[in-house]
Amino acid sequence: MSDTRRRVKVYTLNEDRQWDDRGTGHVSSIFVERQKGISLLVRAESDGSILLESRISPNTAYQKQQDTLIVWSEAENYDLALSFQEKAGCDEIWEKICQVQGKDPAVEITQDPIDESEEERFEEMPETSHLVDLPPCELAKLEEIADLVTSVLSSPIRREKLALALMSEGYIKKLLQLFQTCEDLDNREGLHHLYEIVRGVLFLNKAALFEVMFSDDSIMDVVGCLEYDPALVQPKRHREFLTKTARFKEVIPITDSELRQKIHQTYRVQYIQDIILPTPSVFEENFLSTLTSFIFFNKVEIVSMLQEDEKFLTEVFAQLTDEATEDGKRRELVNFFKEFCAFSQTLQPQNRDAFFKTLANLGILPALEIVMGMDDLQVRAAATDIFSYLVEFSPSMVREFVMQEPQQTDDDVLLINVVIKQMICDTDPELGGAVQLMGLLRTLIDPENMLAPTNKTEKTEFLSFFYKYCMHVLTAPLLANTADDKNSKDSLEGSTKINPVCPDNFQTAQLLALILELLTFCVEHHTYHVKNYIMTKDLLRRVLMLMNSKHTFLALCALRFMRRIIGLKDEFYNRYIIKGNLFEPVINALLDNGTRYNLLNSAIIELFEFIKVEDIKSLIAHIVDNFYKALESIEYVQTFKGLKTRYEQEKDRQNQRLNRYRRDARSLEDDEEMWFNEDEDEDEGEPAVEKSKPEEDFPESYGKYIEGKKAAAAAAAAAANGANSANGKPVTPPTSPPAPTAPTAPAQRPPRYPPLPDQARWTREPTAHPHSYTPTRIQEDQSRQPTACQCPPPWHLPPPHALRCTGRDRASTAATFSPRSPGEPVRLAGLAA
Fold first, then answer.
1. Which of 320, 411, 327 is nearest to 367 (CA)?
2. Beta bridge partner(s), residue 31
3. Where is the PP4R3 EVH1-like domain (predicted)?
4. Which of 197, 367, 708, 810 fits a 20 to 30 Å CA distance from 350?
5. Is 210 exposed, middle or buried (0-12, 13-18, 19+ CB in 10 A)?
6. pTM, whole model, 2 decimals?
7. Environment class of residue 723 by beta-carbon count within 10 Å: exposed (0-12), middle (13-18) or buried (19+)?
8. What is the mean pLDDT of residues 495-508?
9. CB of 367 within 8 A of CB of 317?
10. Would you say 553 and 498 are in contact if contact means Cβ atoms under 8 Å apart?
11. Which residues neighbour 274 within 8 Å (Cβ) at sequence distance 6 or greater?
């Protein structure tokens, strides 16, 4: 048969009746030697490993669903499914399966379950009548009954038939009566057989049998049978524990008898599963899936019944928050709510939402605020568990309650501050409770779960609230343990000398590490708020004091905090670090570490390597200027030499940039002279520009125009001299320019015009002159007085508003406009020297 590959996902059905993804690969139907038949083979697309190797059995019922799914069962409680990416692949594999079984590919299921049962009954159980007919329920037949129950566990069909027989004849009740007889007679052999029988019946995994076995009048006898394990010398006393040691505590009397019975039953069945029955082997782990489901649905029913009884819950909350309630009673109430919330995890999502909303409406959060501040460790631990359920369910609900709390004069009464104080004051040497509370705080301040579209201001409002009312409580231990002792010369040599009130013991170091972990999270996610807090409190300096701690993990936490700050590449932080010289404790820690190649050494070098790779210029300059002499001896890595190289390269670039603008005056004059010479050479060979108006609007030639301007200038000068003579002031006669060989500008400058408006757009005029521009639009104001043109000096290129530049006055370097008649394009004319 041809090897046909199709991309599929392999799924298996778990005991909770949920599909587990086993991987993605390609399926083929080929002959496998060890399976001795055509098999479905799935190889993983990642590494080629075998995800599934299943022989296509002629008697297995394969079912095709939704055009891209093939589902089948290979054993009891072991269901498989192939989900195809393409319908064509599913159709092809389906045809192969039908071909092996001799079925029409048009069918959606290859075997009829009824036919299969009948067929298996004759093929696998030739002695079916003997197995269905149970032996008489007598003491002499207990061994035969035990052998029968044990033998059917390997066959799903036999198990099904045995379960039906046990149910139809009321056999369970008879067996439990025999147990009482054997126990009265102290018949240990019979009791051992009954243990095997009851254990086997539980492994039949049938809910109908569980209903009989776990009823009020039968469950204790079932527990009694399971006490006589043949592997034990003496029987366990489970019934004694359940009846005498374990006591049912009613914090508030439960009047509903059905609810009471369900609670008792659930506890006892849970005890059987967790305590009495041995841990199932790999082959037996699916045998008790129905027992797990039985307990699950019992819990769902208990939660639903309690939730519907509003009178009961209201009374519980009233006593929980009543100051007159005794401590023992309050402890029981809190433990009740803890178990109540644990049961709620079995609810479906929509039912769980309704459950927690009911608790919120009844006032669970104000009640927690009271009990979490109590001195009883058990009460606080239970309250913490309840609080964790609420935070996991809805962080927004908790945040909303916190922000709506009345602003007391004392911030310690706020719920979050109560949580922080409980974290700080955890007496557990391993800080197990503190770790749990730190995780809850992290969830509450995580902006990722503050993105609800219905309340877009939640992030800003809550973070502002947290940094105003709660952050100082969180950082109090850190600031207290890093207080600078100015009277001690060795205040930075070891954190044990920083503050004698809070010694640097292991528990304190663990607490500071937790706080630093939370602050590092804030640096990554609260850029604005945490930046202001760090600057205000000079927090980084205080944190870096912990680099001297004898606990390396605490020094690494402090270094990680600085690494996150530098990783933001924020110049605001960089200036703060440079100004405070905050690299000094880090470099001191590196030098003190010596030649030891450990995690601290690698982490510090990685910090400087990041600065080098990211080319953070301000930090590189600061490090090289202040610390390179201490670091240049470190040659086992090239990090610090690389920093020096980057520093020198940047310095060279800055020098080149400065030299570009620091040219001497003689060089500037030479360049200016060259520019003017080139400009004049271009003007001499420039073709004439056509006139856009009749010639009578202008002088006949440019020369005549210049002569006319000279005459007007001379008349104006004579008038000015006459006026000055009348006032008794000497007048210096104007100097006549030399005779030009080409048309030149008059000695007196023509009228200057103001800069063009910003909205004027310019395009380069297609002419030979390199600095010629023509306006596409210009607004004229005839009433405006002539003003000076704002053109730049001659060594710059003309700006866009400079029009046709026909010359420059080398003395004044000012371009001038040639006069024109209305409507004619404007031309610039320069004055000759």
1. 320
2. 38
3. 5-101
4. 367
5. buried
6. 0.58
7. exposed
8. 54
9. yes
10. no
11. none
The residue type found at 147 is: D
Encoded tokens for 510: 């663990």
Instruction: Please give the single-letter amino acid code of residue 584.
Output: E
708 — pLDDT class (breaks 50, 70, 90): low
Two structure tokens written together for 6: 């199709």
Q: Are strands 804-805 and 827-829 parallel, antiparallel or unpaired?
A: parallel
CA-nearest of 627, 745, 626 to 680 is 745
Instruction: Determine the Cα–Cα distance for residues 172 and 198; give it in Å rounded to an integer.
Output: 9
pLDDT at 813: 41
Tokens of 475: 């950082």
What's the one-letter identity of residue 222? V
Is 221:176 a contact under the CB 8 Å cutoff?
A: yes
- Long-range CB pairs of 129-132 (<8 Å, 24+ gap) are 131/158, 131/161, 131/162, 132/161, 132/162, 132/165
Distance CA 319, CA 327 (A): 11
- Higher-pLDDT residue of 257 and 832 is 257
SS (H, E, C) 5-16: CEEEEEEEECCC
Rounded Cα distance, 166 and 175, in Å: 10
Residue 805, φ and ψ in degrees, nearest 5: -95, 110
Q: What is the 3-state secondary structure (H, E, C) of 804-816?
A: EECCCCCCCCCCE
C-alpha distances (whole Å) from 617 to each of 319, 435, 562, 649 are 64, 39, 17, 11
Using pLDDT thresholds of 50, 70 and 90, give the confidence band for residue 678: low
CA–CA separation, 448 and 12 (whole Å): 33
Q: Which 8-state DSSP code applies to residue 141?
A: G
Q: What is the DSSP letter of 275?
A: I
- Band (705; pLDDT cuts 50, 70, 90): low
The angle, 0 to 180 degrees and rounded to 10, between the axes of the packed helices 432-444 and 395-404 is 80
User: Which two structure tokens, joined as six digits, stand for 537?
Assistant: 């409190």
Sign for the pseudo-dihedral over CA of 793, 797, 799, 805: positive
Pick the closest to residue 446 from 513, 521, 501 (CA basis): 521
Q: Which amino acid is located at 390 in the chain?
A: L
Angstrom distance (rounded) from CA 315 to CA 324: 14
Q: Which helix (H) or strand (E) holds 291?
A: helix 289-308
Signed CA dihedral, 613, 615, 619, 625: sign only: positive
CA–CA dist 202, 211 (Å, integer): 11
Q: Is the pLDDT of residue 175 over 60?
A: yes
DSSP per-residue codes, 350-383: HHHHHHHHHHHHHTHHHHHHHHTTSS-HHHHHHH
3-state secondary structure of 477: helix
pLDDT tens figures, 747-799: 444 444 344 344 334 434 444 444 444 444 434 444 444 444 444 444 444 44
CA distance 75 to 655: 81
